[in-house]
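Annex B.
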Amino acid sequence: MKKIVLTGAHGALGSVLRAPLSRMAESLVSTDILDQPKTLMPNETWSVADLGRFDQIAPLMEGAEMVVHFGAVVDEKPFEELLGPNYVGAYNVWEAAYRAGARRVVYASSIHAVGMAETWSGVDTETAHRPDTFYGLAKCFAEDMGRMYWEKRGLEAVCLRIASCTPEPQNARSLGTWLSHRDLVQLVTRSIETPVVGFTIAYGVSANARAPLSNARVGFLGYHPQDNAENYAATLLSRHTPDPTDLAQTRVGGPFAAVPLGESGMDALRAISGPAVKPDGT
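NAD(P)-dependent oxidoreductase: predicted structure tokens.
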């Protein structure tokens, strides 16, 4: 490819994707609201831009074939704080990509688009939206917009409902929801390389033995995760006290399902996560 655009390039996941994406195109345009890091890939350029400003986003899309949209406020906040970056920002990216003639948007959606679904309910890519927060609602909005842009304008989209993407699993919930960085890179790569995707939803989850999420319907992406959170189970389960009345434990959205609307889900998530765990359970 000639050009890929990556939004949210300074974020925890965007930072992981910069190097592999740079190897997939002649040029990588990385953008974030933050200043560029100290080093860039040889074929990477950096643009500081606000997702909520169409006039700042549109010029970045010129000549792009793929847009990997990972920019957002990544937490629950009052609706007004999410409106610009997460709602308007998604529209700006899709509309600018369409006007520029891009072929596809690969979008960092979230498990929180279906966060109120019960963990035992057999969640798959046909599960209806059940957002757990204003943050999750923004993901529903972007997914529906992505489907509309495909069906009305022919702009393809792969919406990745990312669950718990960290270097190692952090808590008992992540025994099912963990997505390793290695598997994240593979999932995004497959979302770009697959010849035709139309509008596709896939779960960002590793090959966890306890995964409550299924990608069985989207095997055509060729995503075969390599990592399994079960290797960390002994220590993670020793920290866990089951409570069948706690939404944070019984819904796929975890703590985001239990917090009041507008209040941080990340704070609640950090409260249940202990020190880093090694694969041997120590």
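Residues 277-282 have pLDDT under 50 and may be disordered. The longest strand covers residues 104-110. Further annotation is deferred to the next reporting cycle.
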